[in-house]
Amino acid sequence: MSTPSIFIDFRRTLHQYPEVSGQEVETQKRIKAFVSQFAPADLREIGGTGLLLQYGNDDAGPVTLIRADIDALPIQEVNEFAHKSLLDGVSHKCGHDGHAAILARLASLLQQTPPARGNIFLVFQPAEETGQGAEAVLHDPAFSAIRPDRVFALHNLPGYQQGVIVCKPAEFTAAVKSLIVRFKGKVSHSAEPEKGVNPAYLMARFTLALKELEQPDPGAEHFALATPIYTTLGEKSYGISAGYGEVHVTLRTRNNQRMDELSRQILDILANLSAGSGIELESAYTEAFVANQNHPEAFDDVKRSAHALGYDFIEKQEPFKWGEDFGLFTQHYKGAMFGIGAGENTPALHNADYDFNDNLIEPAAQLFLSLVNRHHS
After folding, report:
1. pTM assigned to the model
2. Known binding positions for Mn(2+)
């Protein structure tokens, strides 16, 4: 199943000109110019730097929404192929350029075979990597009249056989959020630390306590990871005992309920450790991703469509440990996210030498078309 060259060329152009989350201004323009040739019934901007396409014009029929993400990462590319990133320190290391190309190919297929009934919406979504794009789309006035009966999305999966479809009911991706804890003590001369309040030891005890909360087995119901990301303490001035520090940690759990429980545990530990220390604490969360909950009917749609196309299918037993803001869509609508294998020996996501496998564009677009046809024929 070969991919028409114009979609490979389009994907590689997006790869050459990556933009990080929330800054996809030129990416939006490139996608808009390219997909306009496929004559959507409506095309409008959404979520700031995203795009919304509509096919069909039957408000009485079913509504399906399919989403692709379009943002890149702040990673320096090390590849030297002809379509390598032309922007220092920014590159498509998660395959969102490929996801956008898949959705563009689907647009071309929908132009050739418009839905017999209902409406189909294609969303080119910005800012997935920061967990902000799905929220921006869902709260955009352009989205207000859309009430999808089904929502679908995919992600390419390095390490899996090329073209295999991977899905599961219930949790498909983990709940993820990052915690920032600020420790405010009091500086002093380093020869007289007793005249200040140095947060270093409290920060160390807190970091070690986080390790005790972990359950690293992703198959366990109480799976939890607390991964230290960044820490800072004081200044590089050796006559001063530090008075301020920060600990940043990313939390991952199997579902949203476990995330709430883990968050309460961590705040209790902070309160107990800091009692009587004289250190003021501030905590905040950032880049939150709710767990992606695949509805059983939508999962069944994916499985049946994969089998109908003759694709290999794997029903995964535990969620992926990474976060995906498509989970916000599946909180509100019946839907499913699935994976498509990118090759067993390909570089991993977010690796500096990663590149999207162009051989996935056509089979992925055909699977989306099959999902559409199940409800719109």
Report:
1. 0.94
2. 94, 96, 129, 155, 350
